[in-house]
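Exercise 7. Given the components listed, write out the predicted structure of the assembled complex. Treat all entries as one system.
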Amino acid sequence: MRTSLVGLALLAWVGSVAGSRIAVAASLVADLSSHLIAITTGFTGTEVLLFGAKEGPGQVVMIVRGPTSSVTVRKKSRIAGIWMNTDRVTFSNVPSFYAVATSAPLPDIAPPPVLARHQIGFDQLKFDAPPDVDPARYREFRTALVRNQQRVGNFMNEVGAISFLGNTLFRASVYFPANVPVGVYLVEVLLLQNGEITGAQTTPLIISKVGFGAEIFDFAHQKAALYGVVAIILSLVAGWLPHILLRRA
Amino acid sequence: MQIYLPIAEMSADVILLLGLGGLVGFLSGLFGVGGGFLMTPLLIFLGVPPAVAVASQANQVIAASVSGVLAHWRRGNVDFKMGLIMLAGGLLGSLIGVWLYSVLRRIGQIDLVIALSYVFFLSSVGALMAVESIGAILRRRNPAAARRKLHQHTWVHGLPLKMRFRRSRLYISALLPLGLGFGVGILAALMGVGGGFIMVPAMIYLLGMPTALVVGTSLFQVIFVAINVSFLQAWQNQTVDVVLAFLLVVGAVLGAEFGSRFGARLRGEQLRGMLALLVLAVGIALATQLVIRPEDVFSLTITHGGGT
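Answer.
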């Protein structure tokens, strides 16, 4: 499954790079220091550098989006003195990772309709909820989702994180925490002049488990029963071995 | 030094995990219990997802109980007949436990059920043991006080299907060890524990088995229940993290050696009293967590690949 995913991602990458370069080549060029983050056994989080150049004045916004998933938000309340889950809302189409870095505060960059159209900023993110969820409840659970994801570092909002070097060059860095979700990410870089988007470029970023950890994960999910047997044998040996060694000693 | 746990999908400190395994191993060597009741809450506290903590812990219980049984077997302290009957109940119980686990996870109450089971069992077992061991310590100080009868007849002895257990020198209904194994099997799957902390007192006080045989026999049946739970969790829920389990096992095996050496210098009722205090302390700590207002009343469950 992993190889096909990478293959698909490469296809998407070739397509998007070709497409976006042709469309807006003149006003904005940007790239990442790395297009592949390998989660190895020693992975503790990593930083990826974005660098690029723009033509003319304007502000730059970078949006990093992880693969979408369904998220169930549960609310606890006190029943008979005990805190337990009593309510829940399941959102679909939620990015598993969402980071925005800008060169200036968002309201100064573009008016709300533009921000909404491109889903720039936490307030503009749109998640799908079941139709029976009323607006007040939607807002309450949506805010909780964003807050929880911010706390673990999966949602980030960094105003002023993009810095300019002279008039044309810019750079920014995004931090991916140790428990970052795997998958194909899209990094969107936008150039805004007078509240209008005048340049855009999308680059993929692949976060994938590699090596020993990836093999264990694939084994556990693809051959679950065999994995269980192997795990049990390892434990039996681990319990029996020291007994033999200690008797010899 | 950090290591990435592939199934838990988080990185954790190697020394911390080895130390945790060592601490729990020390206690299990000292008291003759698996220590799962301490390990699972600590892993969850470290940020390991509860499902992964419970399943990986079941895997490490296998290793801990194998090494325990080998030590007791050498001294002839395992009643295999009793163990096998408890095992039959235990396997059935763990099947139901794993099924119950996935049902509760679906309706979103698994964390509450795990926490409530911990609070209930830890505080009741802890309190019973504390009362008993204080009584034993007082009797030792004052030998003139009335001694308990060696053998008391209760409703338990009126049950059908009586069997003779030569090694334990008991003539009791087979339904007792079967039912005990069944109940503990459910808990093993649900709470990620071997169930020693419930099994050991129940075998002493309910079945009336000689204390010397209890630990070895309980560990013998726990091996198979833990194997069953570990396999079912790996197969059904893919939640066994071998890297996590391995680190815990290495620490636990070393810790158990020190624990059993240290334990040899203490008297039985002192050991039971200390275990009772520890069990009670964990129970109270978990109960407090249920009652105080959580930091955030909202929590998330992410279903990967569930998006469009």
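Discussion: Confidence is low (pLDDT under 50) at residues 14-25 of chain A. The first strand of chain A starts at residue 28 and ends at 32.
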